[in-house]
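User: I've been trying to design a sequence by hand for this structure and keep getting stuck. Would you show me what you'd pick, starting by listing the structure so we're on the same page?

Assistant: Good idea, let's start from the same input. This is the structure you sent:
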């Protein structure tokens, strides 16, 4: 199972949570969905062999919401490490 958290814009009430949850739980391979308009987030758990993140995002956008992925802590660490390597390389060119 793959777990993802999305930042969703445009959710204003419990009905918005229900629209997203109903739309996504109808998809084969989706194990769980928790939408929260107060935090503007949607937590997903799904089987990547039956569906994928792009398809699930498209469903949310069809419901006229927009979103971004929230990076996991591991992704943030990897991105920071990459930028540190780039910065060290630039510094080595100067010196």
């Amino acid at each position: 199972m793959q777990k993802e958290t999305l930042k969703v814009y445009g959710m204003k009430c419990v009905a918005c949570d229900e629209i997203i949850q109903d739309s996504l739980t109808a998809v084969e391979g989706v194990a769980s969905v928790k939408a929260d308009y107060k935090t503007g987030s949607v937590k997903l758990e799904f089987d990547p062999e039956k569906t994928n993140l792009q398809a699930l995002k498209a469903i949310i956008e069809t419901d006229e919401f927009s979103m971004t992925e929230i990076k996991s802590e591991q992704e943030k660490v990897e991105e920071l490490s990459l930028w540190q390597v780039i910065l060290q390389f630039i510094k080595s060119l100067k010196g």
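That's my pick for every position. To get oriented when you compare it with your attempt: Strands lie at 2-9, 30-36, 41-46, 66-69. Residues 14 and 37 are 7 Å apart (CA to CA).
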